[in-house]
Each structure stands twice: as C-alpha cells, then as structure tokens.
C-alpha cells in the first residue's frame, strides 16, 4: 500500500485517532506513546497505525449506525427518487434519469415509482460508475469522503461515551456531552449523504443520452513467440 486514499484518511484514520486520543485520558498506558514535549516520530507512526486499525473497527460500528439511521429515514438518499413519494429531485429530473438509464446504460427498468430499493441499488452503482468514468465525479467523491468522516466521528463519539461510562462512571456528564456530539455528527452525515446522492444524479443528467460504447481494443498482430525490437 503506497498511500492512503482520501476516503481512508478522513473516514478511517481521523475517527480512529479521535477515539484513541479520547481514550488516552482514561487509560494511562496509552499515554506512554506521547513524549513529554509532544509526539515522537516513532510514536506518531505507531499512533497512525493503531488509529487506522481502530478506525476500521469504528467503521463497522458506524455501518450499523448508518443502516439503522437510514432505515428510519426511508432508505438511503440514492433511493429517494424511487417509490410512490419521490424526493431529492424534481419530477422532470427523475423522468430524465429514468430515460438516461434506458438509453445510455441500456438497462430496462419499470417506472421508478414502482421500484424497490433492492432493485434500484445496483442501477445506482452503474450510474455512479458511468459518472466516475465519463463525467465529473470530484464533487461527489468529496461529499462521499466527508460523509464517511462524519459517520466515523459519530461512531467515535458514541464509542467514547460508552468507554467513559465503563472506565470512569463518575464522569457521566462527559458521556452525555459525547452523545450530543455524536448526534451532531450524525446530522452532518445526513447532509453530506444527501449532497452526495444529488451530485451523482446531477452529473449523470449532464451526460449525453448516447449508449456507452466500450473502448476499442488495439489488435496485436505480432506473433506470440516474437520479441519486440
């Protein structure tokens, strides 16, 4: 692994680092990684590695929070254009998405008002792949990264609240404050989840209706046993 992606940096490492930093106040052994005058080079490397590992654990916890939250909100924002009461986009835009899916991607689907999330989910993934290859996905990827960051921070604050209750019950007010912080990050996760879905659809609408044509493969007429000069 040469370098961490933007999503890994903001959605995995930062929440893991926040959680570890908070736990250090209640577990003296962890504070030994910090030098007297700051963080040493070796200590920083170890801290980043442990933060990355802890971030993945928090991501699993965050996935549970995410699934429960969006289930209570009627599904992921990418599914908000289907069903009997669509939202997120105007009716004209939704109709154009339906037309583009058929003409550009070659996918025949029933009217979006009749679709379920399980049927639409793989179609949305193809829409994103199309935008990622032929459109301008930068804003959508940024929104997705910040969405992951807020999901991870919400999970980190919630996990810290539980850890403080276990390690220092007398500091229950800190746990209450951390639960409040977790809800704030959950709200931010909601906003950027909506921004991400809307941006993917908006970029998809800007693509031409022509069917996607695979790139031609250049034929290699050289004999298999002949080396190039």
Biggest sheet layout: none
Shape: elongated
Q: Which parts are unreliable, with pLDDT below 50 for 5 consecutive residues or more?
A: 222-229
The counted number of beta strands is 0
Total DSSP helices = 7
What's the end-to-end separation, in Å?
A: 34 Å
> Can you give the mean pLDDT?
85
Strand content: under 5%
Description:
The protein has 229 residues and is mostly helical. It has one domain (6-205). Helix content is 66%, strand content 0%. The chain is built from seven helices and no strands. Helix 1 packs across helix 3 (41-72). The two termini are 34 Å apart. The relative contact order is 0.14. Residues 222-229 have low confidence and may be disordered.
Summed up, what is this model?
This protein has helices at residues 6-24, 28-31, 41-72, 91-103, 117-134, 138-167, 172-205.
Keywords for this entry:
single chain, 229 residues, mainly alpha, disordered C terminus
List the helices and strands and how they pair.
Elements (H helix, E strand, L loop, with lengths): L5 H19 L3 H4 L9 H32 L18 H13 L13 H18 L3 H30 L4 H34 L24
Helix pairs in contact: 1-3, 1-6, 3-6, 5-7, 6-7
